[in-house]
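User: Good morning. I'm curious how NAP would be positioned relative to this chain. Could you predict the structure with it bound?
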Amino acid sequence: MVHILVSETRSALITGLTGQDGSYLADQLLEKGYDVYGLVRIPSMPTSTLIEHILDDVTLIDGDLTDQASINRAISISKPHAIYNLAAQSFVATSWKQPILTSEVSALGVVRILEGIRYLAPDSRMYQASSSEMFGKVQETPQTEATKFYPRSPYGISKVFGYWAVVNYRESYGIHASNGILFNHESPRRGLEFVTRKISYNVARIKMGLVDKIQLGNLDAKRDWGYAPEYVDMMWRMLQQDEPSDLVVATGESHSVREFCDEAFRHVGIDDWESYVDVAEAHFRPAEVKELRGDASLAREKLGWAPKVDFRRLVQIMVDSDMELLTSHREMTEPTV
Ligand code: NAP
Ligand code: F7E
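Assistant: Good morning! Here's the predicted structure, ligand included:
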């Protein structure tokens, strides 16, 4: 068995570096003095703007969660103290259209990371990006670490698999691996396909006269929405614990898509927002997660974590950022989903 020695300065390997969370986590780890490595799919690099500002500070390693060899190579090169597995096919709606790919990446990808750790770096610590989507058709409210899972999408199923793989490798091989069960968290770096950013971006476009309307799906769905930079901080905190564990990270408040629209349009001075929104069947899901609300008491107790940015502030941050983006004439290409 080959064990790779971890390097002298603290080093961290992030999968999903080019995504919302990966880019914020990289910012925070660089500030803490880590050597940061990212496993990235090279074809996506020219279009990824989220890490443009840190390209000189991080080391990119080509790879893919479907490719064990590239994961092993990334671990060998980075000699990580910490591995944050944030890569995933993370868009729930797409998971019905590409269930096999979703499982390959978001479920089996976790086992590939764990196998890499088991054979090459058994002393490194691992964070797994688990999700409130595992609760799906909720069995109790609010959801805690003890709530039974009932996933409602191929994405949710793959995250349940990844969750249990982490628990199993921890119990079988003593690997320091933890699941962060994160509820929805949003920011100006959120992808345009997710509902919050779709709303904030289009509210800004409507305000500036660039489009007339926005098409949405189920306005009654409710989510526990927090602010991404605060959630990413929790990922780091979780790996500082002596013993690994699984923790819920949430605000404890739930709001509907309708409320998000209301707040976003009101922020730019539009009160009659319903005339700017069309409800389209195409944006409804085969099985919906109606409402999620988490209880992060354990995270507060163990790691002193509590969210500071509330719902209204989150909406304002996102709308203001998109107004600024469009004022600087940087319209983005919207996804068709
Ligand atoms: P995101 O913005 O969609 O980022 C996903 C990342 O995964 C991107 O960097 C993407 O790279 C990468 N990726 C996708 N397929 C890959 C593959 N086959 N191999 C390697 N990399 C691949 O997601 P996020 O919002 O930052 O979320 C981060 C993680 O937390 C995900 O695992 C997500 O499922 C989970 N999570 C998110 C939330 C939330 O509310 N944001 C809540 C709970 C859990 P490209 O740039 O190449 O596409
Ligand atoms: O949908 C409803 C939709 O796509 C939220 C991912 O980060 O968080 C995210 O998953 C709700 C759903 O996020 C539209 O039906 C209405 O009920 O923004 P979303 P999500 O599915 O909650 C979890 C925790 C993750 O782990 C995931 O990776 O909004 N909705 N109208 C719409 N959703 C979208 N996308 N677009 C609409 O037009």
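The radius of gyration is 20 Å. The chain has a mean pLDDT of 95.
Let me know if you'd like a different ligand tried.
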